[in-house]
# Entry
Amino acid sequence: MLDAGSIGLIIIAVLVIIVLSVFFTLVPVALWISAMAAGVRVSIFTLIGMRLRRVIPNRIVMPLIKGHKAGLDVGISQLESHYLAGGNVDRVVNALIAAHRANIDLPFERAAAIDLAGRDVLEAVQMSVNPKVIETPFIAGVAMNGIEVKAKARITVRANIDRLVGGAGEDTVIARVGEGIISTIGSSADHAKVLEHPDMISQTVLAKGLDSGTAFEILSIDIADVDVGENIGANLQTEQAEADKKIAQAKAEERRAMAVAEEQEMKAKVEEMRAKVVSAEAEVPLAMADALRTGNIGVMDYMNYKNVQSDTGMRDSISKYGEDDHTPGTE
# Structure
């Protein structure tokens, strides 16, 4: 059995272990020692405050040590406030070091604003020192003679740190350069001039000041490749001729349909007239019989009428026989 003194010592040892565990959890002693060894003054209470504010001390102290060794005048409160705002402290400090080495004036506030705007501030500083080349896809334009010309450009840009916040990105630069290429090709009277002097495209586009309002400064625009495309003018003329042909065919078909309709109408009228003639001819014998009964004509008149009718039939037969005898192919 343990006596009361032994139990007390065990309780005291457990409490000491708990206190030390809480202390080393709240206070990153190893990080504090590293900061002191690097000549950065960070108090224990500052580290404890970071823990209480749910700030990871390593994310603040290590960039602070890095900046101090590079000769930057950056305070721990600035780094902590940027971290709490959702920024990348380590990337901002790296950008400040790169700007300091390249003699670029970049205050911490501007670097933090660029980082919070969603842009890579370190890449922007590197691009200020080492310009970037942006290659456009093939951009097609049509010269005045109807020939399509395709051009690919390489745009050399340098980041403009003062316009990184609120400035347009690479897509806007590519779109503006593409628009300039299309307008330059379209204003050329002959596509051969564009092929002979592709530098006229770059000179014309560069003179337009396309980097206005963007986060970049355009240093040069070089035409990498120029190709001849389709004969757009000839294709348009062919399509127009085909459309005119279809319109003419439709109008001709409409006129033919109207002519057929008129012919059918005339045939209907002729048939109607023939029907009337047949009906009238059918009434002739009745009229003759009635005239004979009433005495309006005599027997001799009737016989003369029959003779005339027979003579007319004979003449018609002779004329038809003559026509049949001289038909083509009978001789």
User: Anything to note?
Assistant: The chain has a mean pLDDT of 82. Strands lie at 132-135, 139-142, 147-159, 216-231.
